What does this fold into?
Amino acid sequence: PRRPRHIPYYAEACLEALAANGLGKSISLGGALGLLHYLDYRPTHDVDAWWAPGATAEDRRRVIEVV
It folds into this structure.
């Protein structure tokens, strides 16, 4: 995977906040933004994500709080 060239401002801010708090492992990116890491084919304004299988209730609470 490669970092997409165009990440929407709010998407980047949310993802950076999660990373800064050690919460990146709690989500799995999907949708267009997830696909852009493999094929940078179009801009998007969405961040589709799912809970990672190992995300605990505390991880989920913290993700929601940070975002």
User: Anything to note?
Assistant: The chain has one domain: 9-66. Residues 9-66 form one domain. The mean pLDDT is 91.
